Amino acid sequence: MAGDGSSRKTSRAGAVRAKAPAAAAPLVFTPRAKRSVLPSAEQMRRSTREERLLVGRAARQRAPREVHADWRPAADRPDPVALIEDQALTRVKELVPIRHGRMAASPFAFYRGGALIMAADLASTPDSGIAAQLCGDAHLSNFGLFASPERTMLFDINDFDETLPGPWEWDVKRLAASLEVAGRDLGLSTADRRDVVLASLREYRRAMRQASEMGVLETWYSHLTADDVLRIVEEEAVAGRLTRDEVKRANKVIDKARTRVHRRSFERLVHVVNGQLRIAPDPPLIVPIDDLVAPDARREDTEDQAQLLVEAYRATLSDARHPLEEFRYVDSARKVVGVGSVGTRCYIDLFIGRDMGNPLFLQSKEAPPSVLERFLGASEFSNAGRRVVAGQRLMQAASDIFLGWMRYKDHDGETRDYYVRQLHDWKGAVAIENLRVGGATVYARLCGSTLARAHARACDRVAVASYLGKGDAFDQAVADFSRTYADQNERDYEAFMKAIASGRLEAETGL
Q1: What is the pLDDT of residues 461-498, one digit of tens each?
Q2: Residue 96 CA, distance from chain mean position
Q3: Which residue among 4, 47, 69, 201 has the highest number of C-beta atoms inside a 10 angstrom radius?
Q4: What is the pLDDT of residues 198-214, one digit of tens each?
Q5: Bridge partners of 405?
Q6: Cα 482–433–119 angle (5° rounding)?
Q7: In the chain, what are the domain boundaries?
Q8: What is the pLDDT of residue 229?
């Protein structure tokens, strides 16, 4: 629970830097239309199933499913490098080169960090006119494992930094294109990549149709557990589409996720300084709060401010007694996370319960406006942290009981929004780089069905299912889009790498 002040600049050995000039002025975009609005409760109550089916059929007239195949760069398409520079303007200056270095690892890594670039491109594409709560960055690495409050391990979307209501097709295209881009990085053949992409789209359509036929509560309760995942993996192995080694790897991912608990984080991240528990430094990836605040700041003042922030955050949790009340704040540190998120302010916050055997790590992550807001209009929530939390609670089958938000003035005098969640709670992810055709196909299916369930809670699922229909016209069209967009991503990646080589962008690799 800490702000960002005058950082002490440090660098790990072995990093590679290319110096860059100062960034340009912020880019300005005009939203293409007024903010997308989800169907109201009154509309959902009063509309018959037949009326909702007609909404989907009418949408086919406005935007035939085949039109989703078409994409070409707009004549006034923004320079992708300029968009990346624009995002750097509000980020921690010394961390921006790390973001560029991580994005430089591969075209897929670049794609992961390019949510703004793709949002700008999707803004000119046709859509059905049916709104859903979007993840906003639904690429395949933003799905994973985590624990529900009931201690069931779930597979679900796990990143909602860009969440906002908008055309449901945007999430679907972001996911499908990510599978095509990742497939190229993995060396899969053209035919195999298309099969993987189509598997995801087919599963999205199937799961959305299933949701449209379910009762309301069935739809909201629908979820995918780790046991469900292992059952699917085993079925694929029996059918000969997965090897026994792939089954073992799936079990290993889930077993490893169960070890990711607060106690393990405590053992890895905490040491004792002058008899006090402190988060150990590992600059520039982990920088303790004492190294971020002004040199003359007193530790007592920092802790007092943190306590006020804890109280403000606590007010966004449940009204009933909450486990947070039994923990006391101890320390904070800034931590670099992810790829696209690098440079936004993210802190890990250590709390202790009845003794050192009861640690709690929270992650406070800066929540700037969604990249989608530039094109779809501002969020209904004035606090961007609340925007993230509201979207996550709506789309996930079950959410972290520590999920909340806050706003405060940082040590640099800037007021920023944050959302808060547990750092580690049985969190796990598939190693994308290890996937082969069979594993990629199964994973694509899991992501497609999971995205459909998330959308079904936050859109007119009957209308969307009606729009998609029983055939594969939409699937084939988006698969075509994915191939074309992956080509564009490669061109953008090449331009990005040239910007680094020329010194336009500063990059630090090996971190």
Answers
A1: 999 999 999 999 999 999 999 999 999 999 999 999 99
A2: 19
A3: 201
A4: 999 999 999 999 999 99
A5: 419
A6: 35
A7: 16-22+41-125+147-259+433-509, 262-422
A8: 97
Distance CA 316, CA 267 (A): 29
Rounded to whole angstroms, the Cα distance separating 210 from 252 reads 31
Residue 492, φ and ψ in degrees, nearest 5: -65, -40
Nearest to 4 by CA among 87, 92, 88: 92
Q: Which residues of the chain have pLDDT under 70?
A: 2-36
Could you tell me if 161 and 136 are in contact, meaning their C-beta atoms sit under 8 angstroms apart? yes
Q: Please give the full DSSP string across 320-386, using - where no structure is assigned.
A: S--GGGG-EEEEEEEE--SSTTBTB-EEEEEEE-SSTTSEEEEEEEE----TTHHHH---S-SSHHH
46's CB contacts (< 8 A; 6+ apart) are none
The first and second tokens of residue 476, run together, are 């084939």
pLDDT tens-digit readout, 104-121: 999 999 999 999 999 999
The tokens for 257 are 């996720």
Q: Please, which residues have CB within 8 angstroms of residue 50's CB and are 6 or more apart in sequence?
A: none
